[in-house]
Amino acid sequence: MKNSFLVASAFIFLLTSCINDLDTLPLNETDATSETAYAEPSSYLNGLSYLYGYWALVSQNDMGSPDIAVADAGQSELTRMYMVLNELSTDSFKIIWGDNYIVPIQYHRWTSADNEAIIAVYTRCMKGITLVNEYLIQTTDEKLNDRGHSDDIATIHQYRAEARFNRALYYYLLLDLFGNPPFALEENIGGELPKQIGREALYSWIEGELLDLANSEDMPAKGEVPYPRASKGSVWAVLARMYLNAEVYTGTPQWQKAKDAAANVIGMGYQLHPNYQELFMQDNTTNGATEEFIVGVVYDKDNTQSWGGTTHLVSATLSADANTAIAQNLGLSGMLNPENWNGYHVADDYVQRFRLNGVQWGATSGFGYDKDNSDKRAFFYNIGSTKEFDNTTTDTGWRCWKFTGLYSDGHTVSDAEPNYLFSSIDFPVFRLAEMYLIFAEADARLNGGVVTDPAAVDYIGQLRQRAGVASTTPSAIDLDWLLDERARELMWEGHRRTDLIRYGYFTSMQFPWTLKGGVMNGKVSLPEHRKVYPIILSDLNANPNLVQNPGY
């Protein structure tokens, strides 16, 4: 299913009205019209696959030609820059390169002036919403009847439900990252420019839309459609995360709703994959890992080539020396990963949240700690580095190789393979482990800050057992311990910023990290407006209905 769905996502999707309030580039001259795009009933599935694929695709041409106004195509991709905005702005992720988007995000100095990471995520989400709105216009019963596709109405009702889910997910990303984005539905295609409705009202709309899908016969149940298509489990997963952060978005906590939503997902039959490392291997689509994935972004080196996606998480993490040495430590010949961009690092204060036995700085072999007897979610390496992270040099702090060129049978990507520089690792946007953690945290929030529900204790126990550290789980699991467990379980999956904001730590001087606010020891407070990113200037200039977020 993976390859066929990806091939379908290359379908040239109709966009009758360019997004005139965003800084986008013209569509391909070969774009279809509605009359030709939907000439055959199979075209509706092709159009739906493009909506799913938009997380991974940078244009309708090739991986080097972005269709939005971001100079570097790889840096225009949604998954990559979603991860950057949510991780680089926190303690979990450091980049030593000098690209113009990096320093402002890493040191909390971004403004409403152009920043390509902010532009990419904002524009991709808004364009994704526009694509869904256009799809919904083109798939009404009236349109289907006019085209002689009446026999396909029931099937396409399901496609429409999946499209609406994608739109709600895009809006959730905007709610979390930008607070008060423009709100556009089908009537805005070729009509009035969208207006803002406020963060609380947007939250309410997303909740209503998702609950409607959760109760709709059109939205498929888990197992009724193949991975990576969305199901009711996907719907409840977004609700669970949104409810967990409801107090941030609306001022009113919804802990019980978060716990109940997570329980709904858990009860649908997703499975915790027994091998954590396999979740992030090149064959995670076929090795059983996706039984844990609730929403995933699909990548395939032969069909969805991108310098974003999981390719950057594989290629940017290691130096040539580390790449070769880690492979040798694992009993492999050659290199672990196909390239050595050598830009991504982790400071020691974050790595200390993992249980690592025998940490040693200045060692000349191994990993810099006893990997075999440490947390199995720890994929770190410090040989040749100093403990104190320095963003101006390549050999400080830790390197993380969570996403790699490895396959489950032990071989690595070979330069003899076509397109070997690109990754085939699917990126998990939501997985079952997060639902376990949401259930436990919501229970703790409801019970004085300590987990009391035996089911929640069991869920945490399952995660710790898989990580090989069950014996070190505290008898009383409190909120701060859960935050650290989320750091260990969900590292580099796009959660950290949202977590720190929910805990009140993102802007607090009482929660320092290396280079927070551009200060080495990070003992600074950040302005409260940093909890959301600004509306991009090109959209503000093009749409007089919009106002900038406070502080920008």
Brief descriptors of the model:
two-stranded antiparallel sheet; 38% helix; 20 helices; two-stranded antiparallel ribbon; mainly alpha; Serine Threonine Protein Phosphatase 5, Tetratricopeptide repeat
Brief digest:
It is built from 20 helices and 8 strands.
Q: Percent range for helical residues?
A: 25-40%
Order of helices and strands: HHHHEHHHHEEHHHHEHHEHEEEHHHHH
Strand content: under 5%
Shape: globular
Number of strands: 8
Structural class: mainly alpha
Assembly type:
single chain
Count of helical regions: 20
**Low-pLDDT sequence parts:** 6-31
Largest sheet: 2 strands, antiparallel
Tell me the strand order in the biggest sheet.
1-5
What value does the average pLDDT take? 93
N-to-C CA distance = 45 Å
- The gyration radius over C-alpha positions equals 23 Å
Which helices and strands appear, and what pairs or packs with what?
Layout lengths: L1 H7 L25 H4 L4 H12 L24 H10 L6 E2 L6 H5 L9 H23 L2 H6 L6 H26 L3 E2 L11 E2 L2 H16 L17 H13 L1 H5 L4 H12 L26 E5 L13 H5 L4 H10 L14 E2 L2 H4 L28 E2 L17 E2 L26 E5 H15 L7 H14 L11 H11 L6 H7 L34 H6 L10
Antiparallel strand pairs: 1-5, 2-3, 4-8, 6-7
Helix pairs in contact: 3-8, 4-6, 6-8, 8-9, 9-10, 10-12, 10-16, 12-16, 16-17, 16-18
